[in-house]
Amino acid sequence: MTNIHRVCSKSEDETKTLAAQMAGDILPVTVIALFGDLGTGKTIFSKGFASGLGVEDHVGSPTFKLISEYSGRE
Question: How many CA atoms lie within 13 A of 39 on its CB side?
């Protein structure tokens, strides 16, 4: 089953907050795919999402990576 969520944010803070909230609702073994041109907020979203999962590691840009794994809450 595929669920696509499209949201529009007006600021970096709003993007981080939204992503952190989404992280709190995510189910284990869920795949998150981010699509967008350079500068569209993928890194900001990733940082907010990771923060919502309790990740304390540095979260870098997902643009040029095939996969990024982080440890957060269990």
Answer: 0
Q: CA geometry: angle at 69 spanning 43 and 35, to 5°? A: 40
The whole-angstrom separation of Cα 63 and Cα 37 is 9
Question: What pTM does this model have?
Answer: 0.75
Upper half-sphere CA count for residue 38 (Cβ side, 13 Å): 1
- Distance, in Å, from the CA atom of 24 to the CA atom of 72, rounded to the nearest integer, reads 11
3-state secondary structure 42-61: HHHHHHHHHHHCCCCCCCCC
Q: What is the pLDDT of residues 19-67, one digit of tens each?
A: 999 998 888 888 888 888 888 898 999 999 999 999 888 888 866 666 6
